[in-house]
Specification:
The chain is an alpha+beta fold. Helices cover about 55% and strands about 15% of the residues. The chain contains 20 helices and 18 strands. It has helices at about 1-30, 45-70, 85-105, 110-125, 130-140, 145-150, 155-195, 205-230, 270-275, 290, 330-375, 380-395, 435-445, 500-530, 540-560, 570-580, 580-600, 620-640, 665-680, 695-700; strands spanning about 235-240, 245-255, 280-285, 305-310, 315-325, 400-405, 410-415, 430, 445-450, 470-480, 485-490, 560-570, 605-610, 610-620, 640-645, 645-650, 650-660, 685-690. Strands 8-7-6-11-10-9 form a 6-stranded antiparallel β-sheet, sandwiched between helices. Helix 1 packs parallel to helix 3 and helix 16 crosses helix 17 (about 580-600). The radius of gyration is 41 Å and the shape is elongated.
Length: about 700
C-alpha cells in the first residue's frame, strides 16, 4: 500500500513541477521585458514565448474544467473552491496574462493600477485571503518598466492592491460562510429524510420511528468510541447508497471543516480503493489530504489514514476509516481495533437497513393498495397509465419512464411517457423483433441492467425508435393469463440506481397495470357490444335512433337541415340461398366498410336490421343527401366480393328524406323507408327522395 502511495506522490510532484516551471520561466521573460522595445530584444523569442504561454494557458483551463473540479470539490450551492496551490496558480496565470497585455500595448500603461484593481477584485470572488495576499506581490514584481506602477513607489502600489484584495476578500468570505451554513443545514435535513426516512412522509407508527432514531444515536456514539480508542482526529463511517456511490453516514471529528452535504461522493478517494479491493488501507504519510480523504472542506493537515471495509456476507456495505494529524500514527494494533469495530458497525447498519426496509415496504403497500382502489373508478387506459407513471416517478425518480402497449395486431406502441426526457417518443410504433422490449414480451421475463450495456446489444425499442443509453435500465413486461399486454420501461443516468425493493415494487405495479387494462378493455368491449353491430362494426339501431333524436333537437335549435338515407341490398335472400349465410355475412361486412369509408366525420352510418342500413346526415338537405346516396349506390354497384373463387356483385335501393318541423326520428325514417320501397317497386338499384315519391307512384300505376 505504501509503494502505491509513493507512486501517486511522484506523479503529483511531476505534475506540480510542470505547473510551476512554465509560469515561472514566462514570468522571468516578462521581467526581462521580452515584449518591450529595448534594443536587443528578439522578436522571434517573443513570438515563441507568447505562443507557448497561450497554449499552456488554454491547456490548463481545459484540464481544470475536466479534472480539478472533482479534486477541489463542488459545494452544494454550486461554488467551485480554488484554494492553496491551485488558487495561487489560477491567480498567477491571470496576472501573467494581464502583464502580457500591458507589454504588448504600452498605451494601457497609465491604467495599470485600475486594471490590476479590477483583476484582484474579480479573483477575490473565487479565491481565499491567503492567495489574495500573494498575488499583488506578483503583479508589482512583473511591473518593471511601467511608470504608472512606480510613480507612487512600488510600496504604495503594493499596499493599494493588498488593501483591495483583503477588503473584497473579506466581504466574499463572510457571504460564503453564511451561504455554507445555510446550505449545510438544508442538505443535512434532506440527507436524513432520504436515507434515514424520518420525516412527515413516513407512514409507520411512532414505535418504529423511535427505534430507528435510537439505532442511529447508538451508531453515532459507537463511532465516537472508535475515535477515542484509536486516538484519531476524525472517524468516518461511509456506506454504499442505492446508486452505488459511497455516502458519509456518520462522522465524528475534532475539525469543523467537514463536508456534510447530502450525497457526498467518495468514489474518487481512498475509500473507492477499499471498496473495490475489499481490503484494509493504511497511509502513513498523506501529501494531499483533500484528494485522499475527500470529506474535508478546507486545508486540514491530516497526515495519516487507515480504513477497513465493512462486509455483510459477500457484499461490502461501506468503509470505516480514521485519520490523524500525526504521520505514521496508526499501527497494526489500531487495525485490529478497527476490524473488531466493523463487525458491530455492520450489525447496527443491518438493523437500520431492516427498519428502513419495513418502512419502505409499508409505504409501497399503501401506494399499491390505493392504486387498487382507484382502478374501480378509472375512466380509461389514458388515466390508468398516467396514474401508474406518476407513482413510478415518485417512488424511483427515473430519468425516463414509459409504458409500451401491444395491440390486437401485435404492434408495439409507446403509449405514454411519464418524464420530460423522451416525450418525443410518445405515440411512436416500432417493430417488436428488433428491441429489448420485444424480447421481454416474448420471454415473459424482466430485464434489468445496473451498468451501461455494450453498444453492440439490441436497442431498447428498435433501430428506428432509438432511446439513449442509460446507466440503469429496467424493462418489465406485464401480461394476463400468459397473454402479453405491454411493458414498463424505466431508465436512470446513474449505475446501480435501483435496489431489489424497487424492482419488486415495479413487479407488483405491473400486475396492477395488467389488471387495470384488462378491466378497462372488458368495459370497452361491453360498451361496444351494446352500441356496435358485431358483424359490420357500424353503430346499431338503438344508437342510431337516440343520436337521430339529439340531431333533430340540434337542427331545430340552430335552424340547420338534417337528412337521412335508408338503403337495402337488392336480392340479398338470393345470395344467402345460393352461396350460404357466410357469403351473405361477407357481403354485409363489405357494405358496412363501404358506408364507413364514404361517411363524413359528422355523419352516422348504422345497420338497423338484416340487410337494411341507414346514414344520418347533419347539415345536409334532401338534395345533398340524394347526391350522397347516388355516390354510395354507384360504389356498391362497382364493388366485387370474392367468395370461394367466385365474384359476387350486388346493388342497393335507397330512400332519402329531410326532417320536417315537429317531426320525430321515427316519422323521418318512415318517410325515407317509403321512398326506399318506392325505389324497389320501380326497378331497384336506384335512389328515390321522398319529395319524388308521388311521381314514382304514378309510374307504377
Amino acid at each position: 500500500m505504501r509503494g502505491r502511495a509513493d507512486s501517486v506522490s511522484f506523479k503529483t510532484l511531476r505534475s506540480k513541477g510542470v505547473r510551476i516551471a512554465v509560469p515561472a520561466v514566462y514570468a522571468a521573460l516578462l521581467m526581462l521585458r521580452v515584449f518591450g522595445e529595448e534594443e536587443g530584444t528578439s522578436g522571434t523569442l517573443a513570438l515563441i514565448a507568447l505562443a507557448c504561454f497561450t497554449l499552456y494557458l488554454g491547456w490548463r483551463l481545459v484540464d481544470l474544467a475536466r479534472t480539478e473540479k472533482v479534486k477541489s470539490g463542488t459545494r452544494g450551492d454550486g461554488e467551485l473552491k480554488l484554494t492553496g496551490i491551485l488558487g495561487v496558480e489560477i491567480g498567477f496565470l491571470s496576472i501573467l496574462a494581464l502583464a502580457t497585455l500591458h507589454q504588448l500595448l504600452p498605451i494601457l500603461d497609465p491604467w495599470w493600477s485600475t486594471s490590476h484593481v479590477i483583476l484582484i477584485a474579480g479573483l477575490a470572488a473565487i479565491l481565499r485571503i491567503p492567495e489574495l495576499i500573494v498575488l499583488p506581490i506578483c503583479a508589482v514584481a512583473l511591473a518593471v518598466g511601467i511608470e504608472a506602477a512606480w510613480e507612487f513607489k512600488w510600496l504604495i502600489a503594493l499596499g493599494h492592491l493588498e488593501a483591495v484584495g483583503l477588503t473584497v476578500g473579506l466581504v466574499f468570505s463572510v457571504e460564503r460562510a453564511k451561504l455554507h451554513r445555510v446550505t449545510k443545514s438544508m442538505e443535512r435535513l434532506r440527507l436524513e429524510a432520504e436515507h434515514l426516512e424520518i420525516g412527515p412522509s413516513a407512514q409507520t407508527g411512532s414505535g418504529k420511528k423511535g427505534e430507528l432514531t435510537r439505532l442511529n444515536e447508538v451508531l453515532y456514539n459507537y463511532l465516537k468510541e472508535v475515535k477515542i480508542n484509536t486516538n484519531a482526529h476524525c472517524a468516518v463511517l461511509a456506506v454504499r447508497a442505492a446508486k452505488g456511490n459511497l455516502y458519509v453516514r456518520e462522522l465524528v471529528s475534532d475539525s469543523d471543516k467537514i463536508r456534510e452535504e447530502a450525497g457526498l461522493d467518495l468514489t474518487g478517494s481512498s475509500f473507492a480503493w477499499i471498496l473495490r479491493n475489499r481490503k484494509a488501507l493504511s497511509i502513513a504519510s498523506i501529501s494531499e489530504p483533500g484528494d485522499v480523504l475527500g470529506y474535508y472542506s478546507g486545508r486540514v493537515p491530516a497526515k495519516s489514514f487507515m480504513g477497513v471495509p465493512v462486509i455483510n456476507g459477500e457484499r461490502v456495505e461501506g468503509v470505516l476509516a480514521i485519520d490523524s494529524l500525526e504521520a505514521g500514527k496508526f499501527s497494526d494494533d489500531t487495525l485490529s481495533v478497527l476490524n473488531v469495530a466493523t463487525h458491530q458497525a455492520s450489525t447496527l447498519l443491518s438493523q437500520i437497513t431492516q427498519l428502513e426496509q419495513v418502512r419502505r415496504e409499508a409505504r409501497d403497500f399503501k401506494c399499491l393498495h390505493d392504486l387498487a382502489k382507484k382502478l374501480v373508478d378509472l375512466g380509461g387506459s389514458e388515466e390508468l397509465l398516467t396514474l401508474v407513471l406518476n407513482i413510478v416517478n415518485e417512488r424511483i425518480n427515473p430519468t425516463f419512464s414509459a409504458i409500451v402497449l401491444l395491440d390486437e395486431e401485435e404492434n408495439l406502441k409507446i403509449e405514454k411517457v411519464g418524464t420530460k426526457r423522451g416525450e418525443e417518443f410518445e405515440g411512436r410504433e416500432f417493430d417488436a423483433a428488433q428491441g429489448l422490449v420485444g424480447w421481454a414480451l416474448d420471454s415473459g421475463q424482466y430485464l434489468y441492467y445496473e451498468k451501461p450495456r455494450p453498444s453492440s446489444r439490441r436497442p431498447v425499442f428498435s433501430d428506428q425508435v432509438k432511446l439513449p443509453e442509460f446507466q440503469t435500465l429496467l424493462i418489465h413486461p406485464f401480461s394476463r393469463k400468459e397473454q402479453p399486454l405491454g411493458a414498463l420501461v424505466v431508465g436512470l443516468d446513474t449505475p446501480m440506481a435501483m435496489d431489489t425493493s424497487s424492482i419488486a415494487f415495479c413487479d407488483i405495479l405491473c400486475q396492477q397495470i395488467a389488471l387495470g387494462l384488462l378491466q378497462i378493455r372488458t368495459m370497452d368491449r361491453l360498451k361496444a357490444m351494446a352500441t356496435t353491430d358485431e358483424l359490420t362494426k357500424l353503430k346499431n339501431r338503438r344508437v342510431f335512433f337516440s343520436t337521430a333524436e339529439e340531431e333533430i333537437k340540434r337542427a331545430r335549435r340552430y335552424v340547420a337541415p338534417l337528412s337521412v338515407i335508408i338503403l337495402d341490398l337488392d336480392y340479398f335472400k338470393k345470395i344467402n340461398d345460393t352461396y350460404g349465410h357466410p357469403a351473405g355475412d361477407e357481403v354485409l361486412r363489405k357494405l358496412g366498410a363501404l358506408l364507413a369509408e364514404h361517411a363524413r366525420d359528422t355523419d352516422l352510418p348504422a345497420r338497423i336490421g338484416g340487410e337494411e342500413f341507414a346514414m344520418l346526415l347533419p347539415n345536409t338537405d334532401e338534395e345533398g343527401a340524394k347526391r350522397m346516396a347516388e355516390r354510395i349506390r354507384k360504389a356498391v354497384a362497382e364493388l366485387k366480393v370474392v367468395w370461394e373463387k367466385r365474384t359476387l356483385h350486388m346493388h342497393i335501393s335507397a330512400g332519402v328524406a329531410q326532417v320536417l318541423d315537429d317531426e320525430t326520428a321515427e316519422k323521418m325514417l318512415e318517410r325515407a323507408d317509403q321512398a326506399m320501397y318506392c325505389a324497389k317497386e320501380n326497378g331497384r338499384n336506384r335512389v328515390v327522395p321522398f319529395s319524388s315519391v308521388k311521381e314514382y307512384l304514378s309510374w307504377s300505376a
